[in-house]
Amino acid sequence: MTCFIAENGKHVTVNSKSKSSMHTISIDSVLMHELLNLKNYYHNVKNDSLVFGNNKPLSTTTIERKKNQYCYQANVKQIKVHEFRHSHACLLFMNNVPIDEISYRLGHATLSMTMDIYLKYLPKQEKRVLQTLNSLRLSS
Predict the structure, then answer these.
(1) Residue from 45, 55, 52 nearest 11 by CA
(2) How confident is the model at residue 67 (pLDDT cuts 50, 70, 90)?
(3) Which CA distances in Å does 5 have to 2, 9, 18, 68, 121?
(4) Is the per-residue pLDDT at 1 higher than 60?
(5) How far is it, in rounded angstroms, from Cα 33 to Cα 79?
(6) Residues 6 or more apart whose Cβ sits within 8 Å of residue 13
(7) Residue 20's pLDDT band (boundaries 50, 70, 90)?
(8) What letter would DSSP give residue 77?
(9) What residues pair up with 3 in beta bridges, in sequence order?
(10) Rounded to an integer, what distance in angstroms lies between the CA atom of residue 29 and that of residue 21?
């Protein structure tokens, strides 16, 4: 499901782009602990509440403002909110998570979609490429 604010100011929820977008993913134990703490902090949270915003989604300006604030505090480059998705995919890939598992986690219908969109964000590893080529030349 995707939530957005319509021109009339009302919150609208629509179905995701594709069937593969609608799925359940696992979260790590640290995030689970943080979410449970958040739920306990807000006493009126129901099981069908949104993670952030409770009964209605946070506005995009609130999310952007908080992201910028935390990036500034951490002294890191500010990126667009959607780029966290790219970072997540690249982090998983660089830690040897198979591409089919990353593709499922992102809700892509095909592996090629994941590879075409996200693998271009991986850093160039020219040094490793050169070392590999040099070692192949030496062994022949």
Answers:
(1) 55
(2) very high
(3) 10, 6, 21, 21, 30
(4) no
(5) 26
(6) 1, 2, 3
(7) low
(8) -
(9) 13
(10) 23
pLDDT, tens digit, 9 for 90 and up, residues 101-136: 998 888 888 888 888 887 676 666 656 666 677 777
Alpha carbon distance 15, 30 (integer Å): 29
Q: What is the pLDDT of residue 124?
A: 65
Please indicate, yes or no, whether the overall pTM of this predicted structure exceeds 0.85: no
Handedness of CA 5, 7, 13, 17 (dihedral sign): negative
Q: Cα separation of 12 and 16, whole Å?
A: 12
Query: Are 86 and 80 spatial neighbours (Cβ–Cβ below 8 Å)?
Result: no
Smallest CA-to-CA distance from 106 within 122, 117, 96, 95 is with 117
Maximum distance among all Cα pairs of the chain, rounded to whole angstroms: 70
CA separation, residue 92 to residues 13, 20, 23, 36, 99 (Å): 29, 19, 18, 24, 9
| Tokens 């949270």, located at residue | 45
Tokens coding 122? 């991986």
pLDDT mean across residues, the chain:
78
- From residue 64, alpha-carbon distances to 20, 50, 69, 80, 120 in Å are 27, 18, 9, 8, 25
Neighbours of 52 (CB within 10 A): 11
